[in-house]
Amino acid sequence: MADRYLSLTGTAPGRFLTRRLGLPQPAALHRWSAERPWLNGELLHLTAGTSTLDRAAVLARAVLRPGPLVRGCSSAPDSPPPAAVVLDATGVRDVDTLAEVHAALHPVVRSVAASGRIVLLGAPLDPDDHHQAAVQQALEGFTRSLGKEIGRGRTVNLVRLTDPVAAESTLRFLLSPKSAYVSGQVIAVGADAGVGADAVSVPGAVSDAVDWSRPFAGRTALVTGAARGIGAAVAETLARDGARVVVLDVPAAERDARELAARLGGDATALPLDITAADAGERIAAELPDGLDVLIHNAGITRDRRLANMPAERWSSVLDVNLASVLRTTDALLAKGTLRPGGRIVATASIAGLAGNAGQTNYGASKAGVAGLVRALAPRALAGHGVTVNAVAPGFIETKMTAAVPLFIREAGRRMNSLAQGGLPADVAETTAWLAHPASGAVNGQVVRVCGQSLLGA
Length: 458
Ligand code: NAI
Description:
The chain is of the alpha/beta class. The chain has helices at about 5-10, 10-20, 55-60, 95-105, 130-150, 170-175, 230-240, 255-265, 280-285, 310-335, 350-355, 360-385, 400-405, 405-415, 425-435; strands at about 40-50, 80-90, 115-120, 155-160, 185-190, 220-225, 245-250, 270, 290-295, 340-350, 390-395, 445-450. The protein folds into two domains: about 35-190, NAD(P)-binding Rossmann-like Domain (Rossmann fold, 3-Layer(aba) Sandwich); about 210-450, 3-Layer(aba) Sandwich (Rossmann fold), CATH 3.40.50.720. The strands form two sheets. It has a seven-stranded parallel β-sheet with strand order 8-7-6-9-10-11-12, with helices on both faces. Helix 7 packs across helix 15, helix 9 (about 280-285) crosses helix 10 (about 310-335) and helix 10 packs parallel to helix 12. 1,4-dihydronicotinamide adenine dinucleotide (NAI) binds near residues 224, 229, 249, 276 and 301.
């Protein structure tokens, strides 16, 4: 269902009226398209404290390689408004150097272009230095607060890293239109993500050979629940980026799944299968004798009722689709070696799982369970199989599922975030594609919200 309020505020009279009434002002977000694949403007690189990173490496590696996502690089005072600001705060160790964060951003924040990006680079918290840990943690409150006030479709995120090379895919994502609905996030890359120092030598991790325009070429991806909604968008995005996609959905959705597979091309196939079948993992393995590179656990259902009114069947069906089948198929595909070294698992949590939601004890439990699974399995899957495990946690996304939500709750869901609008399936898909990227080997055990910085559980 179209967001009529967003359309209204896109017109001059609508903007005037809603401003006068003090109503939310959602900006038209710049999302990725073949015509506008990068942010339009300069990148401004700033530093607070004495950086622990090689600045040249950050810039050259993350942004300025062939096929730049942000054009240009300048810190001259008379340069045009920046489309992106990277603030290297890895050297912030005490309250005095924390003040340099304010000093660096205060003069420029107002001029950052609409749909622009601010990315802070932070260091892992030092357990032996409580001053450093305090001010590095302070960067999280700073990031989230700035995200809430900055407006005009601009986003603010914090990346904790030690090695900019390992963070290349993450910086490319955050500094592009692909991350339009990701704001207020703290993402750990490398050692701080529970990944050993060897992370970047894992097969499929950062490599000069990465083809940034078709990173999944030669790779096979399976997406569950892909016949429609977010799953279909994930399948489309991975196919766009070169993957051979297997579109898995329940037998009742076989026609849609086959139509999508035919549209995707690139040898895409449909796999009609109920993911809760006890032998689903074995069936997938049999379907993919040559192995699998990317496993996307997207299938999910809701069966809302308050706990006092919830029959056991509503509980078990949600837990089975959203969590138990994820555990079973993951275990089976890792044990059989179907997921090749360098493989990626991306599961789908939800902000309802992180924040809790009335009427959703079953759904909230299942989605929090997904986050627990990801955090616990990530280091072991990487060490044992060379496979990373991450999750996306969508907020309010415009799909058939949310179109069925009663009007008042739907409107609240759309507006109660820093961008004052719902996300699109493509927003979740782009985030999934970044986590599944061959160069994202040092991103592991992360649960990344795609929620426009929702107020829920923030
Ligand atoms: P949707 O209902 O439009 O699509 C879900 C797909 O999963 C359907 O094609 C369905 O047939 C398939 N599916 C359901 N049970 C299955 C099973 N047993 N085996 C195989 N396939 C099965 O849902 P939507 O909105 O696209 O959501 C996708 C995922 O994102 C779900 O995990 C959902 O919980 C999650 N999510 C969605 C949000 C939203 O705002 N739409 C917010 C937060 C999370």
